[in-house]
Amino acid sequence: MFSSIFSLLALSFSLNSAPGRPLTLLTIAVCTFLLAVTALAQLAGHVSETANLPAFGAALMMSLRALGVALLPPRGDRSGLKEASASLGFALVVACVWWIALPDGAPMALTLSLVLSWPFLIDGINAFADKVFHRAALASGARELRQEAFTRIAHARDIIIDRAAVMSGPDLMVTNVMAFNNEPKTLLAVAASAESGSSHPVAAALRQLAAQWQVDLKRPDRFEPTPGLGVVALLGGQTVVIGTTSLLQRLKIDSFTADAIARSLEADGKTVLRVAVAGRVVGVLGLEGTLRQDAGVAGMALRSEGLVPWLYSGESLKTREALAGMLGLEPFDDPAPGETAMQAGSRFTSASGASALVLTLSQDRSSLELYDAGAVARGDGTGEPVPIAVSNTDDIGAFPALKGLAMRRNLLAVHARRVLTSFWLLGGICGALAVAPLSAAPLLFTLNLGILWAFARFSVADTLRRTNKFT
């Protein structure tokens, strides 16, 4: 008898992942207590029909816990310790009352009230929902989804969207070539030659326009990129600087005239680069990309689901504000030179203490990836950050739908937890009054499983109708 009980203890513990371990450890402790009650009763010579009931209760508790963990793996949303502690406290009060009124019935009342009110499934309450919600997420456009995705998305209040994720492609187009003292062709020749060895989209756009204008290019003698700011090159014995005002200020080059011209271009959402030769600004270049047609709709949908969408870009403040205004997003303040959207999200989470998501374009530009910035800031896991959700590049609408599903899942969990708690309380009362046998515990367990399944099916059927508007 005792060997089978302890084998069940080992079985339940081995089935548990880290999220379910707290409730399992408490269940083990409670079962050990019930075994001790049985042993003390035997040593005291109390022989009755119910003397071994606590030991049977311990075996049943561990069997149901092992089965619950196997059927509904814990998700980490809730440990269940609060509900389990309440069940234990209730059972101890019942045992004390019975001890005063009828001492021989105290072990029976303790066992029945404890087993029938124990929250075996509380930490796996979302497991059924996750299975059907996962299918709903795939139907709404998500391609991959990690187990913890719904929990982390539901807790987030902000989402930082990388500029690359809202562009229709990597290509930029040069729209303005404004030379101060020379022909535009001369300015383009200098800029395209300085960038001729770079693979950056700006360099590609300059080379493309140079080919259209039939401008001959030269190879620079030296090329030094400055991430997030621009480049410095040595061309024909002269230093050529192409970049932002910050880069020119760092090199102590006056850009007052160029900045005045750049402001009107930046107000249109264009990327503006200053070109300086031999320490003097000689012109301004304006470039722009093509925004995704559905990016603005996705931004509004994210807001409607309770997320504040921020546009992250390394552009100037005016360019960021213009692009954000076109898309209905908030401009992300003060990006650090060379900083990635992921690093910005980690910094945002550390500074604000709020949970945030980061939406970026994958390195191979084949998919959109959603990250939990809070996990990156905390240093969860090892190695490179892993996206919690992935969609195809043309399915940006999947992410508002995911937020809607995650919030619906949370609401489902609240309602399901209330219903199950009511059944556990009713079971505990019936056990305390000794009107329900120990064999009612498996029936109550099965009923709880059915309730969770019904909640999940009903909720997802309703949610799918709501999320279709995003896809």
Write the layout of secondary structure elements.
Layout: H1 2-15, H2 21-43, H3 53-71, H4 81-101, H5 106-117, H6 127-139, E1 142-145, H7 149-155, E2 158-162, E3 173-179, H8 184-194, H9 201-212, E4 222-226, E5 230-235, E6 238-243, H10 245-250, H11 256-266, E7 271-277, E8 280-288, H12 295-304, E9 308-312, H13 317-327, E10 330-331, H14 341-352, E11 356-361, E12 367-372, H15 373-378, E13 389-392, H16 398-432, H17 440-467
Parallel strand pairs: 2-9, 2-11, 9-10
Antiparallel strand pairs: 1-13, 3-8, 4-5, 5-6, 6-7, 7-8, 11-12, 12-13
Would you write up a description of this structure?
The strands form 2 sheets. Strands 1-13-12-11-2-9-10 form a 7-stranded mixed β-sheet, sandwiched between helices. It has a 6-stranded antiparallel β-sheet with strand order 3-8-7-6-5-4, sandwiched between helices. By secondary structure, the chain is of the alpha+beta class. The chain contains 17 helices and 13 strands. Helix 4 runs parallel beside helix 16 and helix 8 (184-194) crosses helix 9 (201-212). It folds into 3 domains: 2-127 and 405-470, no CATH class; 145-168 and 292-396, 3-Layer(aba) Sandwich (Rossmann fold); 173-288, Calcium-transporting ATPase, cytoplasmic domain N. The model is unreliable at 467-471 (pLDDT under 50).
